[in-house]
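Fold this sequence, please.
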Amino acid sequence: MNKAQLVEAIADKLGGRREAAAAVDVVLDAMVRAVVAGERVSVTGFGSLEKVDRPARYARNPQTGDRFLVKKTSALRFRPGRGFQNLITGAKQLPEGGIAIRKAPKGSLSGTVDPAAEQLSA
């Protein structure tokens, strides 16, 4: 799925292509800016994105055997969330309709979790 296909899939649910394109752009921009700034972006059920620093190291050219220095670099790491991973491995079935990954537990966005919601997720 590319960005245009994602916009079309969202447009069916939001009711307009322009609104869907704006929503996708805003979400992706916010995620990119946070990761570039060194923050970890976590979406409950989906996964997390983070910038990881790789130190400088020596590597070897397999053809000549010569060693050379590889500069330090940064890379993106994605770790799927439990809900997404369960769908990928087949531990859970993709629902026929509705949302594939559950929403965040009540209060998790404010930092306080509802004890009843916490027991349901366990």
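The helical segments are 3-14, 17-36, 82-89, 115-121. Residues 1-39 form one domain.
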